[in-house]
Structure formats: structure tokens, C-alpha cells
Amino acid sequence: MKRGCMGVLAVVLAAAGAAAGVAPGVANAAQQIVVSNYGIAANGMPYAVAMAKGFFKQSGADVSGILSSQGGGTTVRNLQGGGLDFGEVDLAGTIAAIQQGADLHIISDDVLTVGEFVWAVKPNSPVRSVKDFRGRKIGYTSPRSTSQALNVLLLKQAGMNPDDARMEKAGGFGEQIVELNLGALDVVTLADPVWSKNAVGLRPVVRAVDVLPPLANVVGVATGKAIAQHGDFLRAVLKARRMAVEYIYAHPDDAAAIVAKAYNLDLAVAKQAIHNLIAPGKPGSLPYWGQGRFDLAGMNRMLEAQKAVGALKGNVDWAKVIDRRFLPADQQKDY
After folding, report:
1. What is the pLDDT of residue 70?
2. Class of domain 11-113+215-331 (CATH, top level)
3. Would you say the C-alpha torsion 151, 152, 158, 163 has a positive or negative sign?
4. Residue 137 pairs with which residues in a beta bridge?
5. The predicted structure's pLDDT at residue 79
6. Which residue has the higher pLDDT, 99 or 281?
7. DSSP of 149-171, one letter per residue?
8. Partner of 198 at 20 to 30 A CA spacing, among 42, 59, 121, 309?
9. pLDDT range class, residue 20, cuts 50, 70, 90
């Protein structure tokens, strides 16, 4: 997922998990992992929980910290240039890097929907449904971003063409809110936790989870070198993340307290964001945070949406890109 942050944002040290028990046979010497927009976007929240609860060490992965970076391209560069083994990256950014020759493999399907996205307006706006987007100024973050792709998809699903509305680049989610308040936008395209942080002064028109099919948005990625040399570490990271996802769904308020600290959010905002994301969607929908199992249909839908805004070209042979060996046995069968 792409967000309007600048470069490397933070390294979160593993002190929170130091007191937890260490499973026998740590897979590797301590190293960082890199997660796109960690500390800003919802996709990375399970890693905050895994660190705080000691799930990495319990699983056998000595993770010293979580490196955050802006979007897919920056994350891929940090993953490869920093000699790291594991990263969590948006799907389109991963495929683009692979198409350009990067030695990367997708080892888990981490975020199965775009349930964090909400289209919102000012409370007194005449916009009441997607049909009312016609002729209106709709914000998105940046060209070829997920928010732009979803705007196009939403309009098409409502029977409109992309040029039936005026899509305006704002540069970020926060910038959209500023432009909405200035009258430069009619509709903002926001994602949690930014949405929950600003929901009081806005009115939601539509939630992605209510109208869009599952769209696989973020994946776990490993380098070819890591796959060849550090398979135990990769298995342990995926196991720890799964434990964290299960913990979030079972104990959302406790997880929110961890996320609030790691993301520098008010506790109420963190609670609202997590409850938004774990709430059931329409019938047939998938959970927001997956446990690693692949949804190839959702991945294909996301790539088609990204192609519509020029973020990707060509087709993908998933058999050459995906490696399921590092997932737990019960997660190796696709949806």
C-alpha cells in the first residue's frame, strides 16, 4: 500500500519482547524485517503485536526491529539493499519489482481485502451514494496508488466511467482532509487508522468492505537468498505473524493498546480502527488480516485494478512467483 510518508520512519527495537520466553533453536542471528508503512498503515499492526507479545522469539525468529518504509518500491530497495530476509510489501509493488528483475518471491498473502478504505464527505454534503460522485472532485493520494485504483474500480462497479468524476491527486490521506475542509475536494478516500482519527468530523458514504470484492493488498516477500539459506527464519516470522493475527481477533482491545503505543495513536482511535477492520463484511467476504493462505482470485483482481491506473503491465504466472513452503501446513491450500 502506498502512503504519504517520507523514507524510513522508524526502527522499533525488540525490547518489548525481551522478557518473553525464547523457543529453542532461534533460526538466525538477530535481524530486522521491513514492513511497508509500519507505524502508519493498518497492514503492519500484527507485527507490533508480535513484537510486544514476544511471538517472534517464541516462534524461533530473533527479530531485532521493524524497519518502516514508504510504499512498495522503497520497501523492496530496503529489503534487497539492506540484506534483509523478509518484507511485507504491497502486491503491485512486489510484482513490478519482480518484472524488473528483482529476485523476490511471495511467501504469504497477508492482507486479503481493502477493508481499511472508506469514502467520506463533510456532514452537510449532498453526496449520499456512489452515484452522487458523478461530476464531483474525489481525492486520492498519488498516481498509480491503491487509492487511485480503488476510485476507478468503485466508479466502474457503480456503472460509471473514471472520467465521470474528477479525480484529484492530494499527496496523502491527511492532505485530502485539508483539501476537503478548504472546498477543493468533495469526497476523500481514506484508510484506517487515518479514517478513525478523523471520523468525528466526517460522514462515511461507503466502505470498501461493503461494496468491493476481496482484493489482496499486501503480501509477505522473501529474497531468493533468504529462501535458499534462511528458511527456518521465514517460517518463524510467518508463524509469529499468524499468532499476532489470531491475538488481534481474539483480544482486539488488548491489541489496540499495543498498536496505540507502536503507532503513536490515541487508544480510542486504535480501538476504533481495529474494530472496524475485524468487523464482518458482506457475505462471502474474507478477513482483513489473513494468516498467510493465498487468495489468487483476490490477487488477480488487485492486479487488474492496478493495471487500470498504469501501475502494472503484462500478466503474472503465479506458479513462478509464489512459494508456499514456509506457511504452516493448514495454510498451504489456497482459498
Report:
1. 67
2. alpha beta
3. positive
4. 166
5. 80
6. 99
7. HHHHHHHHHTT--GGGSEEEE-S
8. 309
9. very low
Superfamily of domain covering 117-211: Periplasmic binding protein-like II (3.40.190.10)
Identity at 263, one-letter amino acid code: Y
How far is residue 180's CA from residue 117's CA, in Å, rounded to a whole number?
Answer: 17
- Is residue 74 over pLDDT 80? no
Q: What is the dihedral of CA 225, 227, 233, 237, to 10 degrees?
A: 120
Cross-strand bridge partners of residue 187: 138
Considering the entire predicted model, what is its pTM? 0.88
Residue 309 grid cell: 491506473
Distances (CA, A) of 21 to 4, 18, 54, 284: 37, 8, 7, 39
Q: What residue ranges of the chain are covered by domains with CATH 3.40.190.10?
A: 11-113+215-331, 117-211
Which ranges constitute the DSSP H helices of the chain? Answer: 45-53, 55-59, 71-81, 91-99, 146-157, 173-182, 194-198, 208-211, 224-229, 231-250, 252-263, 267-278, 296-307, 318-321
Question: Which tops the pLDDT comparison, 28 or 228?
Answer: 228
